[in-house]
Amino acid sequence: MNIYTKTGDKGQTGLIGARTDKDAPRVEAYGTIDEANSFIGKAMTELERGRFDDLLADLEAIQNELFDCGGDLADVRKTPQYKTSEESVERLEQRIDVLMDEPPLLERFILPGGTPAAATLHIARTIVRRAERQTVSLAKAGEDFPPVVQRYLNRLSDYLFAAARVANARLDVPDNEYVRSAKVFKDGGRSKKQGE
């Protein structure tokens, strides 16, 4: 079976319902989502079964939901069939609340790192933030896509921050605080998330 089609050799790609340039802002956005999804897959290989079964289940669901987000951004038909749901956003919020109660309270900003899985989850988090910025640009340009995609990406970056902290805490690896940070979290980091 050949996986190459040669249809993109001149710098164009297929959306759902049209063709466009491979460097179009919409393609950049769903390509960035795919990049984040790949790092989430890498993080999953670094999480030990048994100790991290809840995170692994979350991340598997998230990988599917990121495919939904990418598909929604690629769907430019007159009557698109969007898949990203408000329920997915709500589920992330519920999981964030659970996970943020597990690691030690925060007083200062932290630096990405710690265990391999935590470091990879932080990479995924920053890539999701880039995808979110790209969807903001799409919205400002008047491009049609479901607003829930942007909300999902915003919440997902918070989830990945919480998951990275849990990945460290369960292995007794402390988060590395940003040494020049003031004490910015009055509630231990429960409400204000790093990066917003």
Automatic annotation (TrEMBL):
It catalyses: 2 cob(II)alamin + reduced [electron-transfer flavoprotein] + 2 ATP = 2 adenosylcob(III)alamin + 2 triphosphate + oxidized [electron-transfer flavoprotein] + 3 H(+); 2 cob(II)yrinate a,c diamide + reduced [electron-transfer flavoprotein] + 2 ATP = 2 adenosylcob(III)yrinate a,c-diamide + 2 triphosphate + oxidized [electron-transfer flavoprotein] + 3 H(+). Residues 3-167 form the Cobalamin adenosyltransferase-like domain. Its EC number is 2.5.1.17. The keyword Acyltransferase does not apply. GO terms for molecular function: corrinoid adenosyltransferase activity. Pathway: Cofactor biosynthesis; adenosylcobalamin biosynthesis; adenosylcobalamin from cob(II)yrinate a,c-diamide: step 2/7. Pfam families: Cob_adeno_trans. InterPro entries: CblAdoTrfase-like, CblAdoTrfase-like_sf, PduO-typ. Keywords: ATP-binding, Cobalamin biosynthesis, Nucleotide-binding, Transferase. Belongs to the Cob(I)alamin adenosyltransferase family. This is Corrinoid adenosyltransferase. It comes from Planococcus dechangensis.
